Amino acid sequence: MSERNTVLRSLHDVGLAAWFGGSLMGAVGLNGAAKAQGNSWEEGARIASTGWAMWVPVGAAAIGVHLVGSTGLLAANATRVVTQQGVAASTIAKTVLTGAALAATAYTRVLGKTIELASSGNPQDAEKAEHIPVDTGQAERRLSYAQWAVPALTCGLIVLNAVHSEQQRPAQQLYGMLRRARTLAPYVVRHWSPTH
Positive or negative CA dihedral for 32, 24, 134, 120? Predict the structure, then answer.
C-alpha cells in the first residue's frame, strides 16, 4: 500500500527544519543579541540586518528544498489524497499554511530591508530608504510581529506533517479508504442504477 520516498521526504523535512529553525533562531537569538550588543538603535539594527542578510541565501535554499520535496510527495501520494478520507483536507490545510509561511517570509524580508537601509551608514542607502513608502518606525513595529509569524506557521507545517505521517500507517490508510468508499457509495449506486 505504501512505497518509499526517502529522498523526497528528506528534502521536505530538512528544508522545513531549516526554515523553522532559522527563523526561530533569528527571532530569538540574532535579534536579541543585536539589541543587547548595539550601543544605539542604528548599531543594533545593523548587527541584526547583517546577520539576516547572511541567512537569506540559506533560508531561500531551505525553502526551495522543502517545496521540491513537498511537490514530489504530493505527486507520489496523489492516489491517497483522492481515495483516503481526511488526506485531502490535511493536504489543503498544509498548502494554505505553506502559502501563508511563504508570504510572511517575504514580508519580513521587505520590512528587514527597509530597516537595513535606514540604519546603514552609507548615504546612498539612506537615500534609498527615503523612497520606501513605509517609515522606519512603522517597519520596525510590523517586523516585531511578523518575525514571529514565520516560526509559528512553519511549526504548524511540522504538526501537519505529523498528521500526514499518522495517516500513512497501513491501518489508517485502510480505514480512510473504507470511509471514503462509504461516502461515495450512494453516488455510485445512483449513477450506475439501471433506471438511469
Answer: positive
Annotated domain spans of the chain:
6-182
CB atoms within 10 A of CB 40: 9
pLDDT band at 179 (very low <50, low <70, confident <90, very high): low
DSSP string, 115-181: HHHHH-S-HHHHHHHHTSSS-HHHHHHHHHHHHHHHHHHHHHHHHHHHHHHHHTSHHHHHHHHHHHH
Distance of CA 141 to the CA centre of its chain: 22
pTM given for the model: 0.79
Burial class of 172 by CB neighbour count within 10 A (0 to 12, 13 to 18, 19+) = middle
pLDDT digits (tens, 9 = 90+) for 109-133: 989 888 888 777 776 766 666 666 5
- By the 10 Å C-beta count (0-12 exposed, 13-18 middle, 19+ buried), 93 is classed as middle
